[in-house]
Recover the amino acids of this structure.
């Protein structure tokens, strides 16, 4: 299905390039990018420690059409250069079309404990006729503080990190021209927005991460969660 933006940009239906088994590669995908000639892709996988921080990065290179991963000892120079503009706060050649990052500490209460009863949902425990000391203690034990990084652009949420390291470019990727951005929206679908706030999502996509626009502006690659340790690599063609 072809989606048409208000800027007359057309996005093809996503084409599956490969299925990636991170159980074999180890870690989770944390970067995806293109070579300068748009013929190769690189993938970085990383571990996370107990605080959600990224550790032990591993780098792979593949053909953009075949998708067969080849491990390399370090990220190619073109990969580092690509990631610098792809994950920047502002769109290329812009000082106003940019991501706003907000950090909050949110308190959440678990309602799964059988001791919580109606108290955990804001009412009295029907079984005991009121609030008990056990209810209060249980709720206190199940209250947690979550550190949340929220990313917004033109009022649209384009990323959220809960108790994890904020990774620029993980949920969005700038177009190399025309002041547009690809991102995973709150429904998990691939979406594109321009600097006027016009946007469109690509139906049928889900759990989208690491959207990456090719340097020639003709393609968007992205990963889609497809089960435990499984990710699908797709590419969408872009025409004007």
């Amino acid at each position: 299905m072809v989606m048409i933006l208000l800027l007359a940009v057309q996005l093809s239906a996503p084409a599956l390039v490969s299925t990636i088994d991170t159980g074999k590669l180890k870690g989770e995908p944390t970067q995806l990018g293109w070579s300068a000639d748009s013929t190769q892709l690189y993938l970085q996988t990383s571990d996370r420690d107990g605080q959600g921080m990224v550790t032990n990065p591993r780098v792979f290179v593949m053909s953009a059409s075949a998708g067969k991963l080849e491990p390399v000892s370090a990220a190619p120079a073109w990969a580092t250069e690509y990631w610098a503009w792809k994950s920047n706060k502002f769109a290329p050649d812009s000082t106003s079309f940019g991501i706003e990052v907000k950090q909050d500490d949110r308190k959440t209460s678990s309602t799964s404990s059988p001791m919580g009863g109606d108290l955990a949902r804001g009412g009295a425990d029907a079984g005991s006729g009121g609030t008990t000391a056990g209810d209060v203690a249980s709720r206190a034990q199940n209250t947690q503080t979550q550190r949340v990084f929220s990313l917004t652009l033109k009022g649209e949420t384009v990323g959220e990190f809960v108790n994890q390291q904020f990774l620029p470019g993980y949920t969005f990727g700038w177009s190399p021209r025309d002041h547009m951005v690809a991102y995973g929206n709150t429904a998990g679908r691939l979406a594109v927005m321009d600097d006027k706030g016009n946007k469109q999502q690509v139906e049928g996509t889900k759990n989208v991460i690491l959207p990456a626009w090719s340097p020639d502006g003709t393609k968007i690659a992205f990963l889609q969660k497809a089960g435990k340790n499984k990710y699908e690599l797709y590419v969408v063609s872009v025409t004007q």
Q: What stands out?
A: The chain has one domain: 3-116+132-239.
